[in-house]
Design brief:
Layout lengths: L1 E3 L9 E3 L3 E7 L6 H9 L7 E7 L6 H11 L3 E5 L5 H11 L4 E4 L10 H12 L3 E8 L4 H9 L3 H4 L3 H4 L4 E2 L4 E6 H7 L10 H11 L4 E11 L5 H21 L6 H19 L8 H17 L5 H23 L24
Parallel strand pairs: 3-4, 3-6, 4-5, 7-10
Antiparallel strand pairs: 1-2, 6-9, 7-9, 8-10
Length: 351
């Protein structure tokens, strides 16, 4: 940010805040899109803001809402995303954007009013290539409240700070992200092979090429969890499946935290399979169940009774779905592995 000498009238310096491009991948967001865009344009930020909406083939009136927003405000641009896939949408929006700072926002995200201001201040003070904050899960129904608690506890998601919070500092990945354009160009944007885990994968490449990813807990974005067991299981199954694809592509990026769910699933399956011949095998799933019940009591304090009663089911759904997705991830989904700690020789500019 440029800073000018003190004003003779106020005695204060005047900052020129850099322009920001906000990119939004949008699919079936008729209900939330107008409010999401309104929150972006109403940010307490003194620099110019543009919003680029990449619209997938939605089954509701999302396209009409997006076109109306663009007609009402010249700061809003609409680009097509025929594939409907998130990384393709993000690259299309990056390609249509104009500014040196690019903020990813989801079509149903609820941003605090100082989100962009804090992001720019953090980029400036840290020299980071990407800054982001907390995915603050907030539920309304008892099931959503249980998921929200699980998604902010170490039992549910490990020690990932963008879920559980913590001190500001370097991180492997962050939620959403506010980027320097040159960093996105350096790594070639989002890898469109990755239907899920594309954020983690690109942040890995940013760090691999010498960049810094910074966690800023003041950037807290409200997130509505999945509303039922089926939707939650599907979400975490695909998280596990694609995290293994990332591990195959980038050697050395897996650790015990990621291996815990698949190891637990494998151990319980083994215990059940051997139990007809060796009954103590049932002690393995029994021990898991006991641990989940105890963990739910420890982390569920303050929850309404209906939400607390659902918490063990939520933990089990998250763990087992993630683990099963990881174990069954087809080798055919994988790309050729990249050697660790190398820089791609010729980055491809974002599409």
């Amino acid at each position: 940010m440029k800073e000018f000498p003190d004003s003779p009238l106020t005695g204060q310096s005047t900052r020129v805040w850099p322009p920001i491009s906000v990119i939004m991948p949008v699919l079936n967001e008729e209900r939330h899109l107008r409010e999401a865009v309104r929150q972006v344009l109403a940010q307490r930020y003194d620099g110019p803001i543009e919003v680029v909406l990449a619209i997938g083939p939605s089954q509701d009136r999302t396209q009409e809402v997006a076109d109306a927003l663009a007609a009402e405000d010249p700061r809003v641009t609409v680009v097509p995303n025929p594939t409907g896939r998130t990384p393709n949408a993000l690259n299309a929006a990056i390609g249509a954007s104009r500014n040196g700072i690019i903020a990813r926002v989801d079509g149903h995200a609820m941003l605090p009013e100082d989100y962009l201001r804090v992001a720019v201040e953090t980029l400036e003070s840290t020299g980071a290539d990407n800054v982001g904050g907390i995915m603050a899960a907030e539920g309304v129904t008892p099931f959503e409240q249980a998921v929200a608690r699980a998604m902010t506890s170490k039992i549910g998601v490990g020690n990932a700070r963008f879920h559980t919070g913590g001190q500001a500092g370097p991180a492997d990945t962050v939620y959403l992200g506010v980027f320097r354009r040159e960093a996105l160009e350096r790594v070639g944007g989002y890898d469109e092979h990755f239907q899920r885990a594309q954020d983690w994968e690109m942040n890995h490449r940013i760090r691999e090429t010498g960049g810094l990813v910074w966690f800023q807990p003041r950037m807290r974005v409200s997130y509505r969890p999945r509303p039922n067991v089926r939707a939650l299981a599907k979400q975490y199954f695909h998280y596990g499946r694609w995290r293994r694809v990332v591990a195959r592509t980038h050697e050395g990026t897996i650790n015990l935290r990621y291996l815990a769910p698949p190891l637990a699933v494998a151990a319980m399956l083994l215990g059940v399979l051997i139990s007809p011949f060796y009954w103590p095998g049932l002690l393995i799933p029994g021990a898991y169940l006991a641990a989940i019940l105890a963990g739910s009591l420890a982390t569920g304090r303050g929850l309404p009774t209906a939400a607390l009663a659902r918490l063990p089911l939520v933990y089990a759904t998250m763990h087992l779905s993630w683990g099963w997705g990881f174990l069954t991830s087809p080798p055919g989904l994988s790309k050729a592995p990249r050697p660790a700690h190398t820089t791609p020789s010729t980055p491809t500019p974002p599409a």
